[in-house]
Design a protein that fits this description.
The chain is of the alpha+beta class. Helix content is about 30%, strand content about 35%. The protein has helices at about 5-15, 65-70, 90-95, 125-130, 145-155, 160, 165-175, 210-225, 240-245, and strands at about 1-5, 25, 35-40, 45-50, 55-60, 80-85, 100-110, 140, 180-185, 185-195, 200-205, 230-240, 250-260. Strands 1, 2, 3, 4, 5, 6, 7, 8, 9, 10, 11, 12 and 13 form a 13-stranded mixed β-sheet that branches. The longest helix has 17 residues, at about 210-225. The protein is elongated and about 60 Å long.
Length: about 260
């Protein structure tokens, strides 16, 4: 059975059981409104999957973990499944017994914007701080859309990195949520982010130039976010990327995205 996200939500509502604990990895988003899902359901469970950017992703809602395992077994091989929760609260047994296995874990980290970019005390830490040029780079234009997508495909893994579909990335460019730095007309550095109310989401960064270039782009947007009255910056880090985790000063929220594939 094929459904859009609104119809899926209706199916979930029908299976909610007052007083029973439920598990779900479904968080509706604007991007999902454009997706069509294959849906299977039981008395207390809805499992559905659809094509995200370059991959198929599965979602579920259930009040019956045994039924959840049975229905997840029907999901096609190669499908991805994310489960966002506090550390260790993933229903691992039910997911893995259905044929999925974990391939990554991402940590959500955040900090108040006012605690970022303060003047450092040590000479080593001052190096990039003193090299800051607030006018470095430019906001991307629509003409940069295809080159950006080509770089995304080269640098990131669509299975775990949740790449933006063309329409969403185009909209982000129009909203000045992509900063780029070019050399001889070629994009050497980009910083992709989202302004979400009072929060700045640091989404993707790529740098083929010197370290100060990416620092300039990131700090430029943090300065702008503070001027706009934003309060928090957050980002997701692959827990196997030890270099990135050592470098960030963002604090661990103890929230994880456990990523499985079948």
């Amino acid at each position: 059975m094929h459904m859009n996200s609104r119809d899926v939500m209706s199916e979930i509502t029908k299976r909610k059981k007052p007083g029973l604990e439920s598990v779900s990895n479904f968080f509706p988003s604007p991007a999902m409104e454009q997706m069509t899902f294959e849906v299977i359901s039981g008395n207390s469970t809805v499992v559905f999957w659809g094509n995200d950017t370059l991959v198929t992703r599965a979602y579920f809602y259930s009040c019956d973990k045994n039924e959840l395992t049975q229905l997840l077994r029907e999901v096609p091989a190669g499908t991805m499944l994310d489960y966002i929760c506090r550390v260790g609260q993933v229903p691992r047994e039910e997911i893995e017994n259905s044929g999925f296995h974990q391939i990554a874990s991402y940590s959500k980290r955040q900090l108040a914007l006012d605690e970022l970019d303060n003047e450092p005390e040590s000479k080593k830490e001052r190096l990039l701080y003193d090299m800051y040029h607030p006018d470095c780079g430019d906001y991307a234009s629509i003409e940069d859309l295809v080159p950006l997508q080509e770089l995304f495909a080269e640098v990131f893994d669509p299975k775990v990195d949740h790449l933006y579909p063309t329409d969403e990335l185009r909209d982000m460019i129009r909203k000045n949520e992509v900063l780029i730095y070019k050399v001889n007309g070629r994009i050497e550095t980009f910083y992709v982010f989202k302004r979400e109310g009072k929060r700045l989401y640091s989404a993707f960064a790529y740098n083929n130039a010197t370290a100060d270039i990416l620092y300039n782009l990131e700090r430029r947007e943090r300065d702008n976010a503070r001027k706009l009255g934003m309060k928090i910056m957050y980002a997701w880090f692959n827990e196997e990327n030890h270099k990135a985790l050592r470098r960030t000063i963002l604090a661990d929220t103890n929230i994880r995205d456990y990523i499985f594939t079948k």
